[in-house]
Specification:
Blueprint: H1 2-6, E1 11-15, E2 24-25, H2 28-33, H3 37-42, H4 56-64, E3 72-78, E4 84-94, E5 103-110, H5 112-175, H6 181-212, E6 218-221, H7 222-233, E7 239-241, E8 246-249, H8 251-267, E9 277-281, E10 286-290, H9 322-332, E11 337-341, E12 347-351
Parallel strand pairs: 7-9
Antiparallel strand pairs: 1-2, 1-5, 3-4, 4-5, 6-8, 9-10, 10-12, 11-12
Helix pairs in contact: 5-6, 6-9, 7-8, 8-9
Length: 353
């Protein structure tokens, strides 16, 4: 047993219950404390004498409190060569069949490298937190700048647009009799283009607001919400809704997701009275499936980009922003959205939360 103890990296020692002297200390003592074992016997050194002066009161309180004996304590020591080291000490009483402790044993381990690693991690964490704070401040400044830019664009563009639309209207009303049919068509196109640009400005503002709105996550009955949204489209008879679909999310934003998806699907389905759009959930996620015209899967990513459309505005009116808003909302919920389609075979939009 002694040979085993002598070869441990830790110091094993014992003495009277107050450790006012060492009755035994293993050979690891010199390696950790920098003092030969023979010297501590010769000079009758006490355990407390070896502690750093600033840590002695705390160590003494630990040694005097028997309830603390079974706990570890970390403190510093100053070696003979002047180096400060960190150690971890675990004490335990030896009774030898009596009711009071006859001796107190201690196992001391050098934990300097552990403390140094912890300190390095603390410094790295502090630096990382500062970098995150700096980056967050930069992002907040960029968002404020973007908000100001968005407002400026909206405000500065609306004035000229109103002027263009009003001028076209005045020309038609005051000089309509002297303008030929081609001129009237040009004025109509001018007014329609200005109106479309005003709509695009509104859609840009919606995108900007979507990214800033605070989310409120709560348990939701998506089937019930989908039924209400279907009624808002005015074509609820064409939408079939799977019952019992639950989710956790922001109700206001998910209503917008469903409305845009239903509205998008209803544009491309054939006329009739039978349900042509279905909302449900399967192994892939939540879905909105339609029996419409479909599209080439090669363009599946393109349809989620703002103002990207696969059809002409004259055939299927729209701003080209609805699905872009859907993607932003789904991503804010930690999910993803994608489309699966074939030309002439309809489209299924999937999303996860």
């Amino acid at each position: 047993m002694r040979e085993l103890v002598e070869n441990l990296d830790e110091v094993v020692c014992y003495g009277p219950p107050d450790l006012s002297r060492f009755d035994y200390a293993s050979s690891g003592f010199e390696r950790i404390f920098g003092i030969p074992v023979e010297e501590i016997y010769k000079n009758a050194l006490a355990f407390i004498d070896l502690a750093h002066p600033d840590d002695r009161d705390r160590l003494l309180a630990h040694l005097n409190d028997r309830e603390d004996w079974s706990r570890s304590i970390d403190y510093r020591i100053i070696r003979r060569d002047g180096e400060t080291r960190h150690v971890r000490c675990r004490t335990f009483p030896l009774y030898y069949g009596t009711s009071k402790p006859v001796m107190l044993a201690a196992v001391v381990r050098d934990v300097t490298s552990i403390r140094q690693t912890e300190e390095e991690l603390r410094r790295a964490n502090t630096e990382l937190e500062q970098r995150v704070q700096d980056r967050t401040a930069e992002l907040e400044a960029a968002v404020r700048e973007l908000e100001g830019f968005t407002y400026s664009v909206s405000h500065d563009l609306r004035g000229p647009l109103r002027s263009i639309m009003a001028s076209a209207m005045i020309l038609k009303e005051d000089f309509g009799s002297s303008i030929d049919s081609e001129g009237k068509e040009n004025l109509d196109r001018m007014g329609a283009a200005a109106k479309k640009m005003a709509t695009l400005i509104d859609e840009l503002l919606k995108i900007s607001r979507l990214n800033r709105q605070e989310m409120r996550l709560e348990p939701l009955d998506l089937s019930a919400i989908a039924s209400e949204v279907a009624n808002e489209t005015g074509r609820a008879d064409r939408i079939r809704i799977q019952p019992g679909i639950k989710a956790t999310g922001d109700e206001r934003l998910l209503r917008l997701v469903l409305f845009n998806m239903f509205d998008n699907a209803l544009k491309y389905v054939s006329k009739g009275d039978e349900p042509a759009v279905e909302f449900g959930r399967d192994a892939k996620g939540y879905f909105v499936r339609d029996t419409g015209m479909g599209f080439d899967q090669e363009y599946a990513e393109k349809i989620f980009k703002p103002f990207e459309r696969l059809v002409r505005d004259s055939d299927y009116p729209g701003s080209g922003v609805g699905l872009a808003n859907v993607q932003r909302i789904v991503q804010r919920h930690g999910g993803k959205v994608w489309a699966e389609s074939k030309v002439g075979e309809g489209t299924t939009f999937y999303f996860t939360l």
